[in-house]
Design a protein that fits this description.
The complex is a heterodimer. Chain A is an all-beta fold. Chain A has no helices and 11 strands. Chain B has no helices and 11 strands. Chain B has strands at about 5, 10-15, 20-25, 30-40, 40-50, 55, 65-70, 75-80, 85-95, 105, 110. In chain B, the strands form 2 sheets. In chain B, strands 2, 4, 5, 6, 9, 10 and 11 form a 7-stranded mixed β-sheet that branches. In chain B, strands 1-3-8-7 form a 4-stranded antiparallel β-sheet, with no helix packed on it. The N and C termini of chain B lie far apart (about 35 Å). The model of chain B has no long low-confidence stretch (mean pLDDT about 95). The chains are: A mainly beta, B mainly beta.
Chain lengths: ~110, ~110
């Protein structure tokens, strides 16, 4: 089975940095995705981590520790448009690698 | 390249009716997955189709079914609708490689009255 945990809601101030954590317990873990979903819209791909370490992509970075079953998404220089739900999803080895999603973290950015 | 498209975008049905939702994947993508998204449960996997065959299935009752056509377009059917089936139904497509990313369509918002 799979168990994915993320905080339900976080708030932050425009211009600040926020870290959204995700922990998972998955047999045969393969990789971890982060998606962003604005209200009423489809999830959009942010990052995919397979190996341990930090991957940076502009204002967004994603970190993975396979041994600890832990990932985080780091958002820098927050903007109002970053207010959205952030979904953590894991894939398992074998099969078709369809991701299983956590319940998402709703991020609210205040001016 | 056009993205994943879903029709209809909004749908209102009554209990006991059935509904069919449609999804057209990104050109060249042969894998199509369906998800149900509700505020309480988040994104839950329904099933995945690849080359017209159901390859993976989530834990949903048999009222939820799907199929995929030779052009990779997919349909999802829900029979005997219940109030609890009200949700956003998302379709996602990806390529054939295990490391390919899933791309989501805009979803169909189903309301059951």
């Amino acid at each position: 089975g799979q168990n994915i945990d993320q905080p339900t809601e976080m708030t932050a101030t425009e211009g600040a940095i926020v870290q959204i954590n995700c922990t998972y317990q998955t047999s045969g873990f393969n990789g971890l995705f982060w998606y962003q979903q604005h209200a009423g819209e489809a999830p959009t791909f942010l990052s995919y981590n397979v190996l341990d370490g930090l991957e940076e992509k502009g204002r967004f970075s994603s970190f993975l520790s396979r041994s600890k079953g832990y990932s985080y998404l780091l958002l820098k220089e927050l903007q109002m448009k970053d207010s959205a739900s952030y979904l953590c999803a894991v894939t398992r080895e074998g099969g078709s690698y369809i991701p299983t999603f956590g319940r998402g973290t709703s991020l609210i950015v205040h001016p | 390249k056009a993205g994943v498209t879903q029709t209809p975008r909004y749908l209102i049905k009554t209990r006991g009716q059935q509904v069919t939702l449609s999804c057209s994947p990104i050109s060249g993508h042969r894998s199509v997955s369906w998800y149900q998204q509700t505020p309480g449960q988040g994104l839950q996997f329904l099933f995945e189709y690849f080359s017209e065959t159901q390859r993976n299935k989530g834990n949903f009752p048999g009222r939820f079914s799907g199929r995929q056509f030779s052009n990779s377009r997919s349909e999802m059917n829900v029979s005997t609708l219940e109030l609890g089936d009200s949700a956003l139904y998302l379709c996602a497509s990806k390529g054939s490689s295990s490391t390919d990313t899933q791309y989501f369509g805009p979803g169909t918002r189903l309301t059951v009255l």
